[in-house]
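Allow me, if you will, to draw on your knowledge of protein folds for a short while. The matter concerns a single protein, recorded as an amino acid sequence and a row of backbone structure tokens. Could you please explain, in whatever detail you think fit, how the structure tokens follow from the sequence? I remain grateful for any guidance, and I place the record below:

…
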Amino acid sequence: MATLKVGLVSPEREVWAGEAKMVVAQTIEGQLGILPGHAPVLGVLLDGSVVKVQPADDGEWITAMVGSGFFSIANDEVSILAEQAELGAEVNVAAARQALEEALAAEGGSDATAERRARARLRAAGQDA
């Protein structure tokens, strides 16, 4: 069975790498599902979105919040380069909820980037945002 080689990195670290059956990413142009054999693409990630990876070993879907960044697909390799990235399993839910409350309270809720990222952290962790 064909798989994808996936790497999700931020400036601080490699967040996740491995073989996958499928990747779903939110771009500025819409959601994109990536399967083995996908045509080459270079895209822009939607800031404050969630990337989902279905591991090749039939494990549970891996979710990660991503800040702005890019992804590329070529020869069954998916590279996701994000300014900020955090696995859903690593999200401190209480801190993410606090960040969302602070973003909503700032100048009447005018901090849209912080709000989007806080909501994405909660969605990646499987929480309602």
Summary: The mean pLDDT is 92. The longest helix spans residues 93-105.
